[in-house]
């Protein structure tokens, strides 16, 4: 242990005593005055410098979540979150002037649970007085590129709910705080707005963009979060001047080595004058780039404030000595503040702001550091997270639908919610953590699967086994296993491989009846499948591709996949199938292995879509919608650049950064070995590109798209070269440099090669600088044809040539990129490079004038079905014959009676507080995507949720924690079109400047009319959902509102008439409700 470390530790012990000795009761309880009311006053004729004391606590990065919380592994990083909260609370209690913000609910509530009531009460007081303020408030500070909106909404809902349950309305964050994510999505802005946030601040944007915005005073703006939703998705967003760090030389933390403020009158080290001069210079410089006489300076950083007094003591001095100068004419005023108090000052300035409609991707921090590698980094962790979200939704629904709900259901569900919350963190799903931390995340996920797996087994047994009369093993706790096969991703499942008789229960989490092609790993091709009515289904056995069989650590006897079409699987329900091995004499497997064709074109497909393969085994053409076009597909790889990172020209490709060596690309193969299998259900081409890349291309009989199931790895590195592997689809579509990518799985955003919408970009990395995050979809089109690819996890992607789409599927690199991880992204499993497997779905057809449903709408519907397919539960059936099974058990179930209209998705159904459900409905189409599906739709909530005895519903903000009709947000006025940046004065210029609106005539009045609340009251309005709301109140409330077709809101009186439960959704709209259930 170094001398430095022991001093550091000794310091903590001293602190611990202080915390316990503090007389918490000595502080007088003041009336609740949180929110904007608690802001320290600013001075109108001065530059107000809002000092924000904060800590950035990654929910896992170089250390695991728990290592960060407890502060272990100090050799890796001196970071212990428990000490931070301890010491901040202590410092805040000593001085009511001080402020602190806290962001990550995952850490906060871990700490909270460990506290005594006395400490909890003291913290409640701090929160009520606005001295400790929650900002962001989600379970973690989520990444914005690789996350799916469903998971982001979930993790905000949960974090905000615990804050609400614990602190009431004073715990509600008003401001988003996305200071570290590596670029920012438009959908995130939209979600913040719909959750009722007043604004959001962020740290990272392209260095050119930032320069430009600062120079033109456009770093704070109104962001139009949606191309479909209008103003309700607008969010005031501000780019911080100095990321989230303290100004150079002013990190007073124990982690830093900057000089404290030494104010001993006769001290030879007295540095007050010099330090205050420097700080005020910094403030003046910063103020020149912003529009009002307020600036925000973040005083903190990664895991700062473990010894809060050290920082605060120096901030006290900084404020005192700087403000003393006001007596001598200084016009700079320093104050303890928070992001929301800063935002309030911006709002109260009453000026206008620039607007923005695109997003902040990709993020570049220098000419050779495009943060586009993490779009793909750790592809298997990214997929595991998507599986986790899928099972979380199943677990939520079944927990809500269960006839009996034992006590353990709630903690199981909570554990999975919180695990998925952690997974959204900007160093978790991004793949930018150390390998050991990635493994810790995976382990947490697998425990969460087990927890929720116990719940789903319980519920499915309740629903399936109505009476124990026919049950053979009466002593058994559960009649059926309802097991999840975690290794289906390598086509392995012990239940289906080992047992001659087993059941497959398909649980459908969508509120639509669906049909789905199902694949089951089996060791023999001959099986019989009967459905719940005893009907024997058509099956097809397809050989498992040799490269899959040969996966070194795959311990499976399965040699075939048994394919069948499961039809009419009920919404929010299940259908069970009985599967039995046949004697060889009854063989039914009907796949014909076509001879390898080397001399002629191979074609697979159906009447909707046909794929042709050339004599070298590559895809060569696609026929769909009466169009036959050249479409090829191949695997290629970039070499990761290698350098010492000493300057940006020598940047290495790494976990964050994608930097291909000289933009050179290598083909993985000149010739592909293929095997062709054709049956009545599916036709497949098995391609082998080389020893580490293979693929199955398949078209199911009824589908109008093609599936590409790729298998990549272990990526060889024996040549000493890191490789970044892509799949590329080339077509003759004349896309003219334009393509579109999704934003967090929702709205599509137009991209143009070598272009950014808001500034004239200079791109020094022509490949990496054109990569964008693809969470679910990338597409391009011309006047006649369009091509779209759906992904099954987040990947980086681009269109570097007209007609061409590429997606990076896997990367293995040998150098670190010097952004902190300190490890090369060189994932291994079982002693070899990591193998990744996944699916792309290719849509091709007419861009316009298509018969029936548009291709875009078809893509949306498929996107939903691929995100939330049926969940497969396997049970051993050795004890029951097919007849016994069919007559003794309930083998089909549905939780709803009214199927939702096609473009509507039941985004959320989960148990919330006692006798409450949290329910979300969303319209999944954008405006103009389809002539009929892109229209507003109406339906009756009560009919949809008929399985529940509903007493009332009330609409909330997107996060489910505030009543929508009581929620008010700050409104900011956009610049008039002709406004030019240089007409704005800095604080030194007279406030009479033409474009500065006088405070007496705020522009916002226009929008809110009489409804507008004085800004100071906004934060304290009781828009919080009270836990105790009783049914009487609900019925009296006019809270439920329904949008009529012309967009106007009508309030309904709630009575027994179910007409009152009719709601309408317009394209891309999400509506969230608390559903009150009658108590039994
Ligand atoms: Zn971070």
Task: Walk me through what this model shows.
With 1080 residues, this protein is α+β, with helices and mostly antiparallel strands. It is built from 22 helices and 52 strands. The strands form 13 sheets. The chain has a ten-stranded antiparallel beta sheet. Strands 22, 23, 24, 25, 26, 31, 34, 37 and 38 form a nine-stranded antiparallel beta sheet that branches. Strands 14, 16, 17, 20, 42 and 43 form a six-stranded antiparallel beta sheet that branches. Strand 39 (828-829) and strand 40 form a beta hairpin. Helix 6 crosses helix 13 (409-423), helix 12 (379-401) packs antiparallel against helix 13 and helix 12 (379-401) packs parallel to helix 14 (435-464). The longest helix has 30 residues, at 435-464. Zinc ion binds next to loops.
Detail the topology: elements first, then pairings:
Elements (H helix, E strand, L loop, with lengths): L2 H19 L25 E10 L8 H6 L10 H14 L5 E3 L2 H9 L3 H12 L3 E3 L14 H19 L7 E4 L7 H9 L4 E4 L4 H9 L4 E5 L9 E6 L32 H16 L6 E9 L5 H17 L7 E6 L1 H10 L3 E2 L1 E2 L7 E3 L2 E2 L8 H23 L7 H15 L11 H30 L29 H5 L2 E8 L5 E9 L4 E4 L5 E2 L2 E4 L2 H4 L10 E10 L3 E9 L10 E3 L7 E4 L3 E5 L5 E6 L2 E14 L19 E8 L5 E6 L3 E9 L2 E8 L5 E7 L10 E9 L6 E5 L5 E5 L19 E3 L2 E5 L3 E7 L3 E4 L5 E9 L15 E2 L2 E2 L2 E11 L8 H13 L3 E6 L5 H7 L3 E3 L9 E8 L4 E8 L13 E4 H4 L5 E7 L16 E2 L29 H5 L6 H4 L12 H6 L4 E3 L5 E3 L10 E4 L4 E8 L3
Parallel strand pairs: 1-8, 1-9, 2-3, 4-5, 5-7, 6-11, 10-48
Antiparallel strand pairs: 6-7, 12-13, 14-20, 14-42, 15-19, 16-17, 16-20, 18-19, 20-43, 21-27, 22-23, 23-24, 24-25, 25-26, 25-31, 27-28, 28-29, 29-30, 30-41, 31-38, 32-33, 32-35, 34-37, 35-36, 36-41, 37-38, 39-40, 44-45, 45-52, 46-51, 47-52, 49-50
The structure holds zinc ion.
Zinc ion binds next to loops.
Organism: Drosophila rhopaloa
EC number: 3.2.1.-
Cofactor: Zn(2+)
């Amino acid at each position: 242990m170094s001398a430095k470390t022991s001093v550091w530790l000794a310091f903590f012990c001293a602190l611990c005593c202080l915390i316990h000795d503090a007389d918490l009761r000595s502080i007088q309880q003041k009336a609740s005055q949180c929110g904007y009311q608690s802001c320290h006053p600013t001075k109108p004729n001065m530059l107000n410098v809002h000092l924000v004391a904060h800590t950035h606590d990654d929910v896992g990065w170089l250390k695991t979540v728990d290592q960060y919380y407890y502060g272990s592994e100090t050799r890796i990083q001196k970071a212990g979150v428990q000490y931070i909260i301890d010491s901040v609370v202590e410092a805040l209690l000593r001085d009511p002037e001080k402020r602190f913000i806290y962001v990550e609910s995952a850490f906060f509530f871990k700490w909270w649970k460990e506290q005594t009531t006395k400490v909890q009460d003291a913290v409640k007081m701090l929160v009520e007085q606005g001295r400790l303020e929650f900002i962001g408030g989600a379970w973690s500070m989520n990444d914005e590129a690789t996350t799916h909106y469903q998971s982001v909404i979930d993790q905000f809902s949960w974090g905000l709910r615990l804050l609400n349950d614990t602190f009431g309305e004073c715990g509600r964050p008003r401001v988003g705080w996305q200071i570290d994510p590596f670029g920012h999505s438009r959908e995130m802005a939209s979600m913040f707005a719909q959750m009722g946030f007043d604004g959001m601040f962020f740290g990272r944007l392209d260095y050119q963009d930032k320069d430009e915005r600062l120079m033109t005073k456009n770093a704070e703006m109104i962001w139009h979060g949606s191309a479909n939703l209008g103003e309700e998705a607008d969010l005031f967003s501000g780019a911080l001047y100095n990321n989230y760090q303290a100004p150079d030389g002013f990190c007073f933390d124990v982690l830093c080595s900057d000089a404290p403020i030494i104010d001993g009158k006769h001290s030879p080290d007295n540095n007050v004058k010099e330090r205050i001069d420097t700080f005020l210079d910094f403030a003046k410089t910063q103020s020149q780039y912003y529009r009002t006489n307020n600036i925000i300076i973040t005083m903190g950083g990664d895991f700062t404030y473990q010894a809060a007094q050290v920082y605060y003591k120096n901030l006290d001095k900084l404020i005192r000595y700087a403000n003393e100068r006001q007596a001598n004419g200084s016009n700079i005023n320093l104050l303890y503040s928070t992001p929301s108090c800063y935002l309030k000052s911006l709002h109260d300035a009453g000026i206008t702001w620039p607007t923005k409609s695109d997003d902040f991707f990709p993020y570049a921090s220098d000419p050779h550091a495009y943060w586009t590698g993490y779009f793909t980094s750790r592809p298997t962790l990214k997929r595991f997270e998507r599986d986790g979200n899928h099972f979380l939704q199943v677990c939520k629904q079944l927990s809500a639908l269960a006839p009996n709900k034992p006590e353990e259901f709630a903690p199981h569900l909570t554990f999975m919610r919180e695990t998925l919350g952690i997974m959204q963190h900007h160093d978790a799903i991004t793949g930018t953590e150390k390998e050991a931390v990635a493994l810790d995340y995976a382990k947490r996920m697998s425990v969460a699967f087990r927890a929720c797996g116990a719940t789903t087994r319980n519920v499915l047994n309740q629903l399936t086994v109505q009476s124990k009369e026919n049950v053979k093993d009466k002593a058994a706790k559960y009649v059926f296993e309802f097991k999840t096969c975690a290794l289906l991703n390598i086509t392995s499942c012990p239940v289906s491989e080992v047992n001659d008789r087993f059941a497959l229960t398909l649980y459908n989490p969508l509120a639509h009846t669906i049909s789905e092609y199902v694949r089951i790993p089996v060791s023999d091709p001959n099986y019989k499948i009967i459905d719940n009515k005893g009907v024997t289904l058509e099956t097809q056995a397809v050989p498992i591709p040799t490269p899959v069989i040969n996966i070194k650590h795959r311990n499976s006897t399965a040699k075939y996949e048994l394919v069948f079409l499961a039809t009419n699987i009920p919404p929010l329900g299940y259908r069970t199938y009985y599967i039995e091995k046949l004697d060889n004499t009854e063989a039914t497997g009907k796949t014909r292995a076509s001879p390898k064709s080397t001399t002629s074109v191979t074609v697979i497909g159906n009447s909707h879509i046909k794929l042709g393969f050339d004599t070298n085994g590559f895809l060569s053409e696609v026929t769909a919608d009466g169009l036959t076009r050249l479409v090829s597909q191949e695997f290629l790889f970039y070499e990761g650049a290698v350098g010492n990172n000493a300057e940006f020209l020598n940047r290495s490709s790494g976990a964050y950064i994608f930097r291909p060596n000289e933009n050179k690309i290598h083909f993985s193969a000149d010739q592909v070995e293929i095997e062709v299998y054709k049956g009545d259900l599916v036709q497949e081409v098995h391609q082998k590109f080389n020893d580490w890349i293979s693929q199955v291309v398949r078209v199911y009989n009824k589908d109008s798209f093609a599936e590409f199931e790729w298998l990549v790895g272990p990526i060889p590195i024996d040549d000493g070269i890191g490789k970044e592997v892509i799949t590329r689809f080339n077509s003759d579509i004349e896309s003219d440099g334009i393509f579109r990518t999704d934003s967090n799985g929702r709205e599509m955003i137009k991209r143009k090669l070598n272009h950014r919408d808001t500034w004239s970009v200079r791109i020094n990395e022509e490949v990496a600088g054109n990569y964008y995050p693809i969470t679910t979809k990338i597409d391009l089109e011309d006047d006649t044809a369009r091509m779209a690819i759906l992904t099954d996890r987040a990947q980086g992607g681009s269109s570097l040539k007209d007609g061409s789409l590429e997606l990076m599927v896997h990367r293995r690199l040998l150098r670190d990129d010097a952004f902190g991880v300190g490890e090369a992204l060189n994932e291994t499993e079982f002693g070899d490079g990591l193998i990744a497997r996944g699916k792309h779905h290719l849509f091709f057809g007419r861009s316009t004038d298509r018969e029936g449903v548009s291709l875009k709408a078809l893509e949306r519907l498929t996107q939903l079905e691929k995100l939330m397919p049926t969940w497969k539960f396997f049970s051993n059936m050795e004890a029951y014959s097919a007849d016994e099974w069919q007559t003794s058990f309930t083998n089909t179930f549905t939780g709803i009676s009214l199927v939702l209209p096609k473009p509507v998705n039941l985004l959320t159904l989960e148990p919330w507080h006692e006798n409450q459900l949290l329910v979300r409905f969303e319209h999944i189409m954008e405006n103009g995507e389809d002539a009929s599906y892109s229209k507003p739709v109406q339906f009756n909530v009560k009919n949809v949720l008929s399985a529940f005895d509903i007493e009332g519903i009330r609409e909330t903000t997107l996060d489910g924690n505030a009543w929508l009709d009581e929620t008010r947000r700050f409104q900011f006025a956009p610049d008039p079109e002709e406004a030019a940046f240089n007409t704005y004065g800095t604080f030194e210029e007279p406030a009479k400047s033409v474009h500065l609106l006088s405070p007496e005539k705020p522009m916002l009045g226009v929008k809110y009319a009489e409804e507008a609340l004085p800004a100071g009251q906004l934060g304290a309005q009781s828009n919080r959902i009270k836990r105790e709301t009783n049914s009487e109140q609900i019925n009296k409330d006019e809270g439920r509102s329904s949008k009529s077709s012309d967009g106007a809101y009508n309030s309904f009186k709630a009575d027994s008439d179910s007409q009152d439960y009719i709601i309408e959704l317009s394209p891309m709209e999400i509506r969230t409700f608390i559903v009150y259930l009658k108590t039994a």
